[in-house]
Structures are given as C-alpha cells and as structure tokens.
Write a structure and sequence with these properties.
CATH superfamily: Immunoglobulins
Strand order of the largest sheet: 2-9-8-4-6
Strand content: over 45%
Radius of gyration: 18 Å
Number of strands: 9
CATH class: Mainly Beta
CATH architecture: Sandwich
Number of domains: 1
Distance between the termini: 51 Å
Low-confidence stretches: 12-26
Order of helices and strands: HEEEEEEEEE
Helix content: 10-25%
C-alpha cells in the first residue's frame, strides 16, 4: 500500500516537472473556465458568461465550431476563427432559463479546434434552477 502511494506521488511529481521544463508537451490551449458553477438561478432570468481561449501553441489554431448540449444555450463566436499564437479569444455564452425545469442544471459546451494538440474541449455548466 505504501509503495503504491509513493509510486503515485513520484509519477505526479515527474509529470509536473516535465510540464514545467518542457511546456510544449502539455495542453497549449487554455480554456477558462472549464466548469461554470452558476449556483442558484432564478427561472426566467437569462445568464451571460464569457469563455476565454488562450492560445499558447506555437502556431495559430482554428476554432471550427462550438456547440452546446441544449437549445437553451447560445454561443456568440466567429465560426472558423483563427486564434493566433499568444492571443486570447472570447466566446459569449448565453443561457435562457425560461423553458428549463426547476431543479439541478447540468449542461455542456463543446469546442472543436483544427491544428490544436487537443481538438475537442468540453465545458460543464452547473446550477440549480429555482422559481423565486
């Protein structure tokens, strides 16, 4: 048991060391936030959230498209936008809560890239719809 825990600690330490010393091997696109916790949401009140894409890759990446798991979410972005290296691009997410049922909310947004080390990113939206 102690050997397994020590092995896990050494593995994580080695991985973090590689990311620090060789940043090109990690994910070079930073999507923020990856989880959006909206807390208690008033039913019928629209919500707007920014999603930031920071390109730390050595080349430009193409945001081919963005989609959501629900028609209640609209995304404002330029399709096929070229995000240049060291550039930050913003997507505007709008959540229409009028037609959503009361209770727990769990929805997803998916971003599809071309020329990126990781071609697909997901963002989770969480919250609790209430009719105050």
């Amino acid at each position: 048991m102690k050997t397994t825990i020590l092995a896990k600690i050494l593995t994580v330490t080695l991985f973090l060391s590689l990311l620090i010393n060789y940043p090109g091997i990690g994910f070079a696109l930073e999507i923020s936030p990856r989880t959006i916790n909206l807390g208690d949401i008033t039913k019928g009140k629209p919500i707007t959230q920014e999603i930031l894409i920071a390109n730390n890759e050595s080349q430009a990446v193409n945001l081919k498209r963005a989609r959501s798991s629900c028609d209640c979410i609209t995304l404002e972005y330029e399709k096929d936008i070229l995000v240049k290296e060291n550039q930050i691009y913003t997507i505007i997410l709008k959540l229409n809560t009028a037609e959503l049922a009361e209770g727990k909310l769990k929805k997803f947004v998916f971003l599809y890239f071309e020329n990126a080390k990781n071609p697909i990113y997901s963002i989770e939206l969480r919250g609790n719809i209430r009719d105050f």
